[in-house]
């Protein structure tokens, strides 16, 4: 039995009993271990982030460049209709484009055998015919002359040029054979081959060939949807938040609304897609695949987020502002619309941007309402069929061709770019206009 | 006149009446606006509202009544021989005629359909003209009455504010309407589904085999809709995800809350939260392209047979996604534990980690459990990752390296095909959606309940 004075003297002294020292050492070791666990948990999380970004960027960067081949296409006048009214994309569909292009590549590379001509033609993207046709539709005076045009190279040629297909592999493991390789080298030596920035990626719609498919239609579709979400979720969300925060009496009804909003925020997004399918498409009979329906579904989905964040922004405005307005004779409505809302505007803006970012990345509900369509042309109105950026990514990810992996990754990079921009904007606005009361 | 043009005209009219109303209020005041009850612009607003509201009400009423009314005109215009056919056949004819009338091209068009389409599109044209006249008349009458009855004593501001408040209440109720819409639409379709498929075939069956949509129609059996393998798959994937996310998330939260310097915390916390902001389709692609092949190659080295699409692939990637849900929510809860508890424990000689494990963790436990449950509900309802990485075969196995499928995958599969909407093959998606909605809602409510009930009240 030790007395208090003995304990105090012994702890003051550096010499601990061996058992205590051992236990202390163990406890300190546990302490250090725990810290390491915590730090490594964070590092694991961040490592996943880095791995994901690098693997996507690595796979996606090549898709921002495309390979083009210069062709000299003889547009013989006798192959074209004489009636100028027929010089449209539709009217010219039956002109023998394939023959013209085959002739052009034959004249350039001079095949030794018939089978070589086929190999040569395969160096070009099937999109080349469309490109030549469009050039003629744009400028009918070209008919009768020789058109020099840079057309897309086939996906495999593109991959060789970028090095994603290794040209040193044995011939049977390559999709491009040795003969085609020599053709590519000859084209390159003639200056008929060049790599350039892939505008096709940003302008084209769906296509079965990776080199001629792009996110153009998907971006327009997403843009329409974002506009609809902005036009609906902003006023409705702000109005709902103003009512709940400023006017609502504390009763059962407002309690129900509040619990409801919190629960809606946690409902799986796919359920909103089912709602959209059952209500907007089957009941109201709006068209499938239309950005209008997508926008409505995404609005319902983002409303809870917007309402919750807007309420927080309204709450941050001090009551003294309201009281001062009321004190000089403003009505309650005037105090809120003239004073509280303008002061809460930066916070509201931030919340709607974050809501939009959430809506932009959402895929599952859009699958339910038929946005998984192969759309080739730009939608002119929100009622036309379109697809969305994340849905386009999803559709590409399921395609087996090698070129689509790069396309998918590039699409993801564009999507993430938009999201990073939106979130950065939100942070910037908050930092710039944030007011401490 | 299309509805959007009509709406634009109505809005233009309302703006015009705003200026008329304001002018009239100035006129009534005789130049001294202090004699008015409200400021002049409120008189203008009141007039404008009374133009817009009746006109828009007329448009909405017509949109609600139109489908039934137009259909009856269409059916009347069909020859009697057609009307004798079966209901489903008739509905098909009606929709063919409609698509003809709106310029769509359908196969199997017969002469009487062309006639009916003509009648239908004529009726539509007439109706839209009458709608325009009715809506504009309603607006003009509303605005005109307000203008005529306006006096300097009209309580314009109060009446405008009443209307604005009603609009605010309406907007707040949209949340309720959404929930009601979700529940009703899914209930409706689910009841439809259970008319052709028995409860036991759905809830107690272990075989998922819905066949094609033609299966039921030929008098054969309608297929098997056992949700058990889907449910097991969902739970299994979510369980693997939680195995990844809970330890990482919790340890990260504890480090961030207790050890990290403010500067480190200010960088690391938002960085982790980026994980929650990345679209799920990106995670799906990451699973498909990187994690799946990595697991498969690792399996090859170890001599194990691992599928690229498997419970493990989907679970791990989903786990990464929900790390920030757990870490951020738990971090908030842990920082809310009062200082006095920490200082008391440290003062007794406990090390920091002992304080965290034995004092702070128990004190924050209800909040932590709540955050874990919320993350679990997120994992169960997650769609894109499992659609892309978990597989589509509904097999019931305990091996995490085999593909399994989930409820959400099957909802997507059943609805993206070309099935007829009324077939049980499609309707089963709504039954699955209903099940999913009930489970996630239950989890959320349970989580909130736990947080509220077991929260330690300090101070």
Folded structure, characterized:
The complex is a heterodimer of chains A (437) and B (459). Chain A is mainly alpha-helical and 437 residues long. Chain A folds into 2 domains: 65-197, no CATH class; 216-433, MetI-like (MetI-like fold, Orthogonal Bundle), CATH 1.10.3720. Chain A has 17 helices and 3 strands. Chain A has helices at 4-12, 18-60, 97-109, 114-121, 127-138, 155-162, 178-189, 199-203, 216-247, 252-264, 269-283, 291-316, 319-327, 332-360, 364-368, 389-397, 402-433; strands at 65-74, 146-152, 193-197. A 3-stranded antiparallel β-sheet of chain A has the order 2-1-3. The longest helix of chain A is centred in the N-terminal third of the chain and has 43 residues, at 18-60. Chain A starts with a helix and ends with a helix. Chain B is an all-alpha fold. Chain B has 2 domains: 3-153, no CATH class; 224-454, MetI-like fold (Orthogonal Bundle), CATH 1.10.3720.10. Helices cover 78% and strands 1% of the residues of chain B. Chain B is built from 17 helices and 2 strands. In chain B, strands 1-2 form a two-stranded antiparallel sheet. Chain B is flat. The model of chain B is unreliable at 215-220 (pLDDT under 50). At the A-B interface, helix 2, helix 9, helix 10, helix 11 and helix 12 of A face helix 6, helix 9, helix 10, helix 11 and helix 12 of B. Chain B: Residues 231-447 form the ABC transmembrane type-1 domain. Chain B: Part of the binding-protein-dependent transport system for phosphate; probably responsible for the translocation of the substrate across the membrane. Chain B: Pfam families: BPD_transp_1, DUF3708. Chain B: Keywords: Cell inner membrane, Cell membrane, Membrane, Phosphate transport, Transmembrane, Transmembrane helix, Transport. Chain B: InterPro entries: MetI-like, MetI-like_sf, Phosphate_PstC, PstC_N.
């Amino acid at each position: 039995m030790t007395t208090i004075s003995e304990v105090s003297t012994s702890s003051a002294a550096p010499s601990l009993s061996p058992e205590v020292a051992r236990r202390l050492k163990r406890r300190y070791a546990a302490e250090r271990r725990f810290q390491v666990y915590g730090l490594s948990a964070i590092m694991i999380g961040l490592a996943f982030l880095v791995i994901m970004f690098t693997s996507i960027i690595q796979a996606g960067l090549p898709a921002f460049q495309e390979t083009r081949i210069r062709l000299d296409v003889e547009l013989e006048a006798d192959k074209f209709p004489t009636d100028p009214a027929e010089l449209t994309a539709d009217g010219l569909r039956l002109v023998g484009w394939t023959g013209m292009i085959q002739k052009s590549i034959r004249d350039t590379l001079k095949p030794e055998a018939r089978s070589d001509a086929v190999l040569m033609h395969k160096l070009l993207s099937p999109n080349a015919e469309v490109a030549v046709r469009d050039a003629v539709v744009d400028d009918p005076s070209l008919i009768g002359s020789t058109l020099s045009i840079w057309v897309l190279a086939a996906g495999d040629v593109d991959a060789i040029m970028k090095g994603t297909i290794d040209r040193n592999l044995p011939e049977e493991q390559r999709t491009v054979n040795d003969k085609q390789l020599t053709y590519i080298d000859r084209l390159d030596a003639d200056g008929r081959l060049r790599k350039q920035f892939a505008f096709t990626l940003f302008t084209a719609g769906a296509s079965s060939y990776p080199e001629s498919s792009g996110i153009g239609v998907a971006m327009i579709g997403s843009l329409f949807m974002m506009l609809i979400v902005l036009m609906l979720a902003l006023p409705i969300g702000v109005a709902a938040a103003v009512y709940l925060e400023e006017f609502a009496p504390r009763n059962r009804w407002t309690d129900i609304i509040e619990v409801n909003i919190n629960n809606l925020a946690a409902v799986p997004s796919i359920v909103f897609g089912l709602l959209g399918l059952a209500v907007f498409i089957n009941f109201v009979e709006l068209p499938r695949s239309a950005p209008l329906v997508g926008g409505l579904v995404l609005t319902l989905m983002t409303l809870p987020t917007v309402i919750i964040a807007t309420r927080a922004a309204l709450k941050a405005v001090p009551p003294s502002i309201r009281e001062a307005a009321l004190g000089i004779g403003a009505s309650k409505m005037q105090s809120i619309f003239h004073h509280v809302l303008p002061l809460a505007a930066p916070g509201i803006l931030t919340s709607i941007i974050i809501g939009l970012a959430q809506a932009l990345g959402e895929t599952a509900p859009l699958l339910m309402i038929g946005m998984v369509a192969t759309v080739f042309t730009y939608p002119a109105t929100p009622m036309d069929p379109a697809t969305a950026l994340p849905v386009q990514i999803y559709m590409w990810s399921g395609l087996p061709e090698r070129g689509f992996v790069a396309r998918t990754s590039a699409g993801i990079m564009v999507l993430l770019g938009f999201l990073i921009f939106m979130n950065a904007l939100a942070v910037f606005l908050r930092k710039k206009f944030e007011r401490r009361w | 006149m299309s509805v959007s043009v009509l709406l634009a005209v109505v809005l233009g009219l309302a703006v015009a009446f705003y200026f008329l109303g304001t002018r009239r209020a100035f006129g009534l005041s005789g130049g001294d606006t202090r004699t008015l009850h409200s400021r002049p612009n409120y008189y203008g607003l009141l007039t404008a509202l009374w133009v817009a509201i009746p006109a828009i009400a007329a448009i909405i009423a017509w949109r609600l009544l139109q489908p039934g009314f137009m259909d009856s005109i269409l059916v009347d215009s069909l020859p009697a021989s057609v009307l004798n056919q079966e209901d489903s056949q008739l509905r098909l004819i009606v929709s063919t005629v409609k698509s003809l009338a709106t310029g769509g091209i359908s196969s199997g068009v017969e002469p009487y359909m062309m006639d009916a389409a003509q009648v239908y599109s004529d009726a539509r044209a007439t109706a839209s003209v009458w709608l325009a006249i009715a809506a504009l008349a309603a607006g003009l009458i509303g605005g005109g009455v307000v203008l005529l009855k306006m006096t300097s004593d009209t309580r314009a501001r109060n009446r405008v504010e009443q209307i604005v408040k009603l609009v605010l209440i309406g907007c707040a109720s949209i949340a309720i309407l959404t929930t009601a819409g979700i529940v009703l639409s899914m209930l409706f379709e689910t009841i439809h589904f259970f008319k052709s498929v028995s409860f036991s075939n759905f809830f107690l069956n272990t075989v998922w085999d819905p066949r094609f949509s033609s299966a039921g129609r030929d008098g054969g059996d309608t297929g098997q809709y056992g949700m058990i393998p889907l449910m097991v798959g969902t739970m299994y994937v979510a369980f693997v995800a939680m195995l990844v996310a809970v330890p990482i998330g919790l340890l990260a939260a504890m480090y961030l809350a207790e050890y990290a310097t403010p500067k480190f915390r200010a960088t690391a916390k938002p960085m982790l939260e980026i994980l929650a902001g990345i679209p799920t389709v990106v995670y799906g692609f990451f699973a498909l392209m990187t994690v799946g092949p990595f697991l498969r190659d690792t399996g090859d080295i170890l001599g194990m047979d691992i599928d690229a699409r498997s419970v493990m692939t989907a679970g791990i990637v989903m786990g990464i996604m929900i790390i920030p849900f757990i870490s951020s929510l738990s971090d908030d809860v842990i920082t809310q534990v009062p200082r006095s508890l920490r200082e008391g424990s440290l003062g007794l000689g406990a090390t920091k980690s002992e304080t965290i494990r034995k004092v702070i963790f128990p004190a924050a436990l209800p909040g932590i459990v709540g955050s874990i449950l919320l993350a679990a509900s997120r994992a169960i309802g997650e769609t894109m990752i499992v659609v892309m990485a978990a597989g589509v075969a509904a097999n019931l196995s305990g091996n995490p390296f085999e593909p399994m499928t989930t409820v959400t995958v099957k909802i997507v599969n059943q609805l993206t095909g070309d099935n007829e909407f009324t077939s049980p093959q499609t309707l089963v998606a709504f039954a699955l959606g209903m099940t999913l909605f009930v489970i996630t809602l239950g989890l959320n409510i349970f989580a909130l309940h736990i947080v509220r009930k077991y929260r330690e009240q300090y101070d």
